[in-house]
Design a protein that fits this description.
single chain; 76 residues; mainly alpha; flat
Length: 76
């Protein structure tokens, strides 16, 4: 998760905040062995992928309880 999070420092970021929050929450519930393999695969994919956010788009930082697991409307 840390390596994926560090990729978000790149401007524009290779994944949006909602996708990162979903990954973070899934890591709490998924089988640890499965999740480590999956996160490694996701990291390698994001490292080489084009950014999800267009250049020059504003970046917003949300902190606090508003990003709790029960608040996200869809886990699609």
């Amino acid at each position: 998760m840390r390596e994926i999070s560090l990729l978000r420092r790149i401007s524009p970021s290779p994944l949006d905040a909602l996708a990162f929050i979903k990954l973070n929450h899934a890591s709490f519930y998924a089988d640890p062995v499965f999740m480590v393999d999956r996160l490694d695969s996701i990291y390698r994919h994001l490292r080489d992928e084009q950014p999800a956010t267009p250049t020059g788009a504003p970046r917003i930082l949300l902190i606090g309880p508003n990003i709790g697991a029960g608040i996200i409307p869809s886990w699609n």
